[in-house]
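Example 9 (inverse folding). The structure is encoded as follows.
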C-alpha cells in the first residue's frame, strides 16, 4: 500500500504544481494586460499634457495681442446684455408698428427696423391728409 500512497502524494504534488503553473500563467497574462493598460494611460496622459501646453501657449500668445482684463470682460458682457435688451425692445416696437400699419391700411413693407419716434412720425404722415 505504500507505493499507492507514494503515488497518490506524487500525483497530488503534480496536481498542485500544475495548478500553481496555471495560476502563474494567468497572473502573467493579467500583468501583461495591466502593462498595456498602463502604457495606454501614459500615452493618453502625454496627449493631454501636450494639448494643455498648446492651449497655454495659445492663451499666452492671445494675451499679448488682446490684453483684456477681467473687469473689461465683465463690462463687455454687460454691454452685450444691454444691447440684446435694446434689440429685443426695438424688435417688439417694430412688430407693434407693423401691426399698426396693417390695421390702418398702409401696405408698406419696412425694410429696416425703426426707432419708436421715427415709426410714430411715419404713422402721423400717413394719417394726415395731403391737402
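The amino acid assigned to each position is listed next.
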Amino acid at each position: 500500500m505504500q507505493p499507492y500512497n507514494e503515488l497518490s502524494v506524487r500525483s497530488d504534488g503534480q496536481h498542485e504544481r500544475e495548478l500553481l503553473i496555471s495560476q502563474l500563467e494567468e497572473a502573467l497574462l493579467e500583468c501583461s494586460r495591466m502593462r498595456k493598460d498602463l502604457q495606454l494611460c501614459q500615452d493618453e496622459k502625454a496627449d493631454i499634457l501636450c494639448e494643455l501646453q498648446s492651449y497655454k501657449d495659445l492663451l499666452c500668445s492671445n494675451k499679448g495681442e488682446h490684453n483684456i482684463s477681467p473687469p473689461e470682460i465683465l463690462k463687455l458682457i454687460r454691454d452685450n446684455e444691454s444691447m440684446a435688451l435694446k434689440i429685443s425692445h426695438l424688435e417688439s416696437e417694430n412688430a407693434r408698428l407693423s401691426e399698426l400699419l396693417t390695421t390702418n391700411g398702409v401696405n408698406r413693407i419696412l425694410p429696416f427696423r425703426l426707432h419708436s419716434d421715427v415709426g410714430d412720425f411715419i404713422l402721423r404722415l400717413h394719417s394726415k391728409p395731403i391737402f
